[in-house]
## 1
Amino acid sequence: MKARVKTEKFDWKYFIKHIAIIAVPVALQNLLTTTGSMVDPMMLASLGEQTVGAVGLCAQFSSLMFSGYWGFVGGGMLFFSQYWGAKNDRGITRSFGLTLSFMMTVGLIFGFLALGRPEFIMSIYTDKPEIQQIGIRYLRLVGFAYPLQVLAMAISALLRSIEQVKIPLYGGIASVFANCFFNYIFIFGKFGMPEMGVTGAALGTVLAGVVNLLILLVFILKRKIPYVLEFSGYFRWDRDFIRQYLQKCFPILCNEVMIGVGNMMINIVLGHQSEKAIAAVAVFRTLEGLVIAFFSGFSNAATVLVGKEVGAGNHETAFQRAKRLVYLCSALIGTACLLLVGVHNPLLHAMGLSGESYRIGTGMLIIYSIAALIRMGNWTQNDTYRSAGDAAFGSIMEITFMYLMVLPCVYFANYALRAPFLLVFALCYVDEPVRYVIMQFHMYSGKWIKPVSDEGRRTIEDFRREHGIRIQKRVSGGYRFADGHTDGRPEGGARGFGCC
């Protein structure tokens, strides 16, 4: 029987205020970044649907790279936010160094593939020779942008975790304006430059990445934020720290890679449809990015607001915040989807869709708007678990349902039943309601709070006892609980650091 948990009245004013402080700049930055990704297909629309479709397929390769390094972003933010709550500067710096090392390895690998093997990449995503040739020209140049984007993402993740959310916003604003400016010059051959078409769009993306990174570094130097500047602290790892880091990152990495591969298999199905459908998918993915960009600001707020309290040892506060964040994020994403459906007509036409491709794109947006209510609730819960130290549960759920439910349904409907395209697309979200129910049970159990900081470990015993989470036995340096988690192991403190 669970013990009765006494909780103070929830401080909604503080909660909403700090969500806004963190979420709004992050959401704006992500919206700007996504708007930047829309610049290429919108400015290339005059060159035809084949060009739009080719660039959209190249964006799917970029998404696969994103899946490859996002496991380290998620694991890194877990450590950044908890160490920030514990005021452990040393922990933040070495976590950033380790995160950056892994992320740059992924960025360099994908950059090499884009530059050296673009033919192979395009042959995976489509069997249309004309679209392949356009995509090859784009990849051969845009591959230079990948390491720049990865480095900027690592720095932005750190800044968000320590509540310096405005700096990435400034970089995002500069990047979008730079992308529009350089695209205009190089795609259409303005100011004496040659008309480069799709190659000009790729060059604009590379130069925009340079601008974004420079803006981030200028503000970091100006504000003297120590973690990015203390290069000597990047590599002060010991075996125990690397093991702990990889234990937390490995489930997230597996999640992102496996889901990335699963999404690639889905995109292969969608990429072997008619040219009208391929163009609609390319535009939909860009608009989907708008919704995700809006939502991810609130997801980042969940990571910081929950992870910070877990790191500081305020587990009940983290628990109460997490439950409310899920429903709040779902409500906000529903509002965003309604807005997107309301303005879809001019958006789809502006991005080059008409006739059959317009009809398909409209259907995809309506299906997604319904599914996103539950999908983003699952996303919020998974990010919340990760920030609190439980990197495995949500990852196992997502991988299991992707490979045992989603992919079989999509492939069976497409190849065996020859189902209409929109039905195949709808089946991409068939697992979301089932996962949501399971994730809710885990949320209310409280078992996902697993701190990595000293401060968090000192108070976890009391929280688990209050919530009826059974303790198995005393072990050296701490307690081992029924789920196998051990707390109380010393890791060494560090000086505190106030918010810049």
Note: The chain is about 75% helix and 0% strand.
## 2
Amino acid sequence: MKKNFRFYVALWGAKAGTILLKLLRRNATFFPGKFAITVCPDFIARIDKPKTVIAVTGTNGKTTVCNMIEDVLKDNNISFIDNKLGSNVASGVATAFIKGANLSGKTKKDMAVLEIDERSANKVYPYLTPTYLICTNLFRDSMLRNAHAEFIADILNKYIPRDTKLILNGDDLISCNIAPENNRVYFGIDRIPTDTDECHNIVQDIVVCPKCNGKLKYDFVRYHHIGRAHCEKCDFGSPKINYEVTNLDIENKKMTMNVAGKEEAYDLITDGIINIYNMVAVISLFKELGFDAEKINNSLKKQKIVETRFAVEQVKDKKIVTHLAKGMNPIACSRVFDYIKKEPGNKAVILILDDFHDAHDSSENITWHYDTDYEFLNDDSIKQVITTGVRNLDTYVRLQMAGIPKEKIVHMRDEVEAASNIKLDGIDTIFILYDIYTIHLRDAVKKEVETVINDEEKGKEWDLIWR
């Protein structure tokens, strides 16, 4: 599409706005793109794009996958543009292109890595055709925005450009069937010892064949609707996997992947199954880009999950784990609860999962708690659960419904005060779970937990002295 007068007004105005924001020491992450699209609604279509555009979408894992891709590119000295510091909606995408273009709208980079919100498909894809689009998964999400996975799949089906090659999770029967006419490859993980024949989660979003309405037969279930299945009445079922993990050795942090009949070895940088899927998605992309296994692995094994998502710290004889668990997202929370249950040792858990981060964006709908597997926290190894924040009473009720004894639960409005009630006797690990919007509370709660640990240590020292 040709550049017109309106396009140049939008571009130059956005560039000037970027400079002004930097002078004011503010991040120019959202405003430049918003301004450009307001002045020129088809701005994204008119600005020059890098030769290769990689887009990442899906319910969970978008940010982590983008971070991994970008780190591999940096490690191989490949320059690119991204919307890492901006938003994953149309204005953030526009800002990324503005930053990567000169005053004539010509791009200065050969590659772009863009996180794109699923609900923004109608605002982005009519103006942008990604070379590759990774879809990590599709689950039910916030009732405010994404409702049900099939609702999101329908939006993606309407707007994904026909010429985009798809890299899809073949173990997700919903996301692996989006945009069926597009060229595609699938990634997945073969059956592992922890898989089951039946779903043990509250939510399993696809149980009926979308072609003939027959009941699906799951060959194995990993969690929720992730696994392999087939219809016993027609030919619908899980696809043949192009990039498949055939041996997953979490204990030794290794995995083997079958690529076109050849076995490739990779080092694991995580023991969480969701982030292993994220790794497999990234490997699949770089195989499509022509990278060899050694180069991919050498770059990936240098990485670690971003600390705003997951971090571990040793304080005295206790381990503190901070772990993102998106509020209003039942699948994300269930996955973290399951992870905690399976971790060794005795544990205490602090929940900061309120959606009440902003009066504008908040919801009084708490139904997501009843799609979330709080039952995973009902385990002998979990000695205490502290729930805090505006909705602590709602969570307190849900924890009791999960069968967790009252004497194990502390519920309190103030987050820091709640953390001060932690009981450390016999505890090996403290898990602090927080929402995207409560990172500042995470830090305050973690500091309070550290204070309790240090005070307990001082108390032990004084006991020894007085004895």
Note: The chain has a mean pLDDT of 92.
## 3
Amino acid sequence: MVSRVGIVGDGVIGMAIALVAASRGISVTLFGDHTPGAASPASAGMLAPSVERSDGPGQAFSDAARAAWPRLLELVRVQGDPGFRLTQQGILQVALTEADADRLQRSLRGPDRWLGAAEARRAEPALQPNLVGAAHFMDDGLADVPSALASLERATLRHPLIARHRTPLRRLDACGAQLTLTDAAGADHEVDHGVLAAGVWSPTLEGLPRALPVTPLRGTLAAVGVPLLSVPVYGPDGHCYVLPREGGTVIGATADAVGFDATPGPSDLSTLQRTGSSILPALAAAPITQHWTGLRPMTPDRLPILGPDPALPALLYACGHSRNGFLQAALTAEVIADLLTGTDRADIGPFAVDRFIERLNT
């Protein structure tokens, strides 16, 4: 049984891992400093694996991850926190052409429903009047990002087995079967296992046994102060979306490979308003009241990196979730906690780090 774990990264994934591991009796030290450009606070919080479905291992993991969120909510409440807003009323994906409608109808599964144009607009009256119809993905939902992050923050601060360190880590070194984690102030922390969950900054930790192919993809979102929706709605391509949040409407999201530049691009806001208004025409005239940007941690195959390093088993990876970090956070936490306690249940072979052959110093 592992007794001491150091988690590198305090975003939604790092905090979720800390809470799940501590709930199983593991002493956790959580390192992180809320780096500007972090993906978690910039996330939309969509729990929508039904959009852009595939037949690969990532799809099965995302479907299971959606179902793990209520369990994470319960762990937060065990710590005496009121919890966060989690809605599972489904999402819509609109069809603006007959070709869209044909493709989306073929994507329906299980309890999903097809809504004709009139029915879709009865459900969400602000939708584009010229839409052909909409797919209603019944099992999908939304985690409210601000309240989820705040709840996880409070729960990790309250838990007696979790220590928080606001100084970021700079290096790890193997010490027999253990690890030494060195922070930016030069202090050393000995742990039985380290968990790397630092998003786009994961590859920058010194002492890693291999290079990690995790690169940043900038995403900008915007909000207007007008509530227009009751459930999230995707456009037909699955990239543009609009969602309800705190008395307003969020529009997302751009995607630009510009390195670690976390400032919005010059045309990002106009692009968001244009694409958002193709779903909700009222957005065309609504002034943007807020915008923000995050760096998604992308891998070449868009799948996460999960599990131990073959060359350094004391190091576990929980990074590279690409566009699905918030969706997959709760299940990632359970998977890592399973590995730490020797009760692994999920097949994470497709997400092993050694599917990438590049190593440091080779």
Note: The two ends are 34 Å apart (CA to CA).
